Amino acid sequence: MNSMNSNISTGSTIKLNEASLSRLPNNIRVPNYDRHQIINGIVHIGVGGFHRAHQALYLDNYLQQSRDREWGICGVGLLEFDRRMRDALHSQDCLYTLVERSTEGDSARVIGSITRYLFAPDNRACVIDVLADPHCRIVTLTITEAGYYYIEGSGEFDANHPTIQHDLQHPHEPIGVYGFLTAALDKRRQQGLQPFTVLSCDNLQGNGNIARKMLTAFAQMQNPELGKWMSDRVTFPNCMVDRITPATTAADLKMVAEQFQIDDAFPVVAEPFLQWVVEDNFCAGRPDLESVGVQMTDDVHPYEMMKIRLLNASHLLIGYLGTLAGYTYVHEVMADPAIRQAVDRLMAEVTPTLQPLPGIDLDDYKQTLIQRFANPKIQDRLPRLCLNSAAKMPKFILGSLRDALRQDGAIDYLSLTIAAWFRYLKGQDDRGNPIEIDDPMADILTQRARSSGSDPRPLLSLAEIFGDLSRSSRFVETVSKHLHNLDEFGAKGTLAR
Fold this sequence. Notes:
Layout: E1 14-15, E2 42-45, H1 49-53, H2 55-65, E3 73-77, H3 83-91, E4 96-102, E5 105-111, E6 114-119, H4 124-132, E7 138-141, E8 150-151, E9 156-157, H5 162-169, H6 177-190, E10 197-200, H7 207-222, H8 224-233, E11 239-242, H9 250-260, E12 262-263, E13 268-270, E14 275-279, E15 295-297, H10 301-324, H11 330-334, H12 337-350, H13 362-373, H14 382-386, H15 389-406, H16 412-424, H17 442-451, H18 457-460, H19 463-466, H20 473-496
Parallel strand pairs: 1-12, 2-3, 2-7, 3-6, 4-13, 7-10, 14-15
Antiparallel strand pairs: 4-5, 8-9, 11-14
Helix pairs in contact: 4-6, 6-7, 7-8, 10-12, 10-15, 10-16, 15-16, 16-20
């Protein structure tokens, strides 16, 4: 987004805001509801591209077709990084353009379900007040895998993290998500109000269970009585979300201006595919999400396993092999027959570890994934897939690997994904071009990757990522073989072998 430049010639474009909606071209769908009548029953923390292409779209559809006005969204940004979103949304009445792109064509609509946006560093007390307001009944989260302060190897809460320590010591001036949620829930408890539901929409298996465990652990450290009240009263549904949504680029701003005549400071682009499966467990009510295509269920687990183990795992393999081979975009990687075949084989390896899914044809689902990855209009860049890999690897790859080892199943392509990550961590592609490693653990990862040659054991011994997997000689030998080949022959040469 740093490279985004909104200096678009405004001669032929219309600056997006409430007043200009009626002047937009007729082929652009705009909110048909009075946004000033909306009550924000939902507060969403972590407003990025995905939230705006996914949950905010579902709620916009809901407001378009229902008379229920209690489920608008107040967006919240906690990080300095969110300042850009604040400036963009405040400049256009929290409206933004969503463009769905496919080979069939592009369609644009303006989303109106976010009616307010708060940037926490501007006024932390205001964020706590909005969360504590009785109108707030659901708090949704897209804070990335790393935002949960969850120690992967042990499954425990990272109580020593500086953000957590700060919030424990400054309960009225929090900086992290748990500090804000706890401060607001404590206010509600003291005022005799019911709590809100906390709905994680991040790519974590059992995301609601993790949110529950981490938030209540934090609250108990701050105030045991509050921790018990939350444990008894707050609900944390699990959910599975799916839509490929690349980061917004300067080219997207230009496309929105040229194709749709809209001057939008921060549009969002996504694929046509959309899926949301939610555990029906809400302590303070919810909108009729079924009416807009959300699948409500008693058990999300089989669905999230399918998505995380097939889609997200494939994304990692595509990201590392594609980067090593010198590609920039996902669709370019999928046009390489050898890597495409490797993705097919990774999915085939993972499939025996999945649970039965009534009403889902897994072969059809996998075929759809391949088509989605190959969509050339999405321009999904490989660094997005490789971002924060230390947090993604245990969630997307290692569960399948453990199950495959238990079942005495194939682990060749799961191990290749790990070996490709290790080769990627050396910071150079197969032609010697530099790779930028964007990961909170980058220092230790790159140091071990560069100093250990083709020996994967120094990296595999990082228990906070791999747990006890390094004890499996079969696994270590398979990763070692692939890493040696990647070092000697490169990504394409390894696949050719």
